[in-house]
Amino acid sequence: MGMWSDVKWLFFDVGDTLVDEWIPVDHIMNQFVERAADRGYSITIQDVREKFIESYSNFIDSPMQYAISQLIEKEEDRAYIRPRLKYRKELETPYPEAKKILAQLGEHYRIGIIANQSPGTAERLHQYGFSSYVDVIACSAEQGLAKPDVRLYEYALEKAGCAPSEAIMIGDRIDNDIVPAKLLGMKTIRILQGYGRYQPSKGADDLPDCTISGLDELIGLLL
Q1: Most CB contacts within 10 A, which of 5, 14, 69, 185?
Q2: Phi and psi of 206, rounded to 5°?
Q3: Which of 156, 94, 178, 167 is nearest to 131 (CA)?
Q4: 144 and 172 co-located in one domain
């Protein structure tokens, strides 16, 4: 097991880690394109995707607000567009392999969730078929703390009765998943899914212990 020999707990992010957000993100991008057209702008979804990539590459919060600020010239047009965009959370779907991976890992590790999510995370995990594998849930809406605040991580570790050195954080984002976990002494695995894969590592402080391209790689890595 090597570097994982002391690990008892695996903590997962949700969005773009266990759950694919590409479809709802594309959906809200198309809403933006349509509302921009209402105001006379000829913008394509690829234009919006490029701004999302810029946002993640530069660690800018709220990629959609960044895209609006960059692609819409007039504030009156921005004010028209912003309230007309709605993220459709029901369009999120678990990655096809996620349930099987959790089941296999759950035979050897306890599993927790540390995520920035809207209310109802436990119910959604149940709908996805994940809940029987998850022992601890620490989410922003319920705890009133949002990543990268290390207090959300501390809450999860305390609830798990787990020392940081006994845990791995698995997530897609350097800023929200890797950096705070490393600050506490947790081990880290970065998964290159979603727009989080465009965040660049800047040095030892944010360099994960391992980087993988998909969930299925966890089996060979951890078992």
Answers
A1: 14
A2: -120, 15
A3: 94
A4: yes
Encoding tokens for residue 108? 């050897």
Helix (H, G, I), strand (E, B) or coil at 194: coil
Plot region of 77 (φ>0 → left; ψ -120 to 50 → alpha; else → beta): alpha
Domain co-membership, 116 together with 105: yes
Measured in residues, the chain has a length of 223
Give the C-alpha separation, 28 to 196, whole Å.
Answer: 17
3-state secondary structure of 15: strand
Q: Looking at residue 140, which CATH number applies to its domain? A: 3.40.50.1000
Q: Is the pTM of this model over 0.85?
A: yes
| Structural domain boundaries enclosing 50 | 22-89
How many structural domains are present in the chain? Answer: 2
The per-residue pLDDT for range 22-37, each reduced to its tens digit, is 999 999 999 999 999 9
DSSP line for 87-149: --GGG-EE-TTHHHHHHHHHTTSEEEEEE---S-HHHHHHHHT-GGG--EEEEHHHHT--TT-
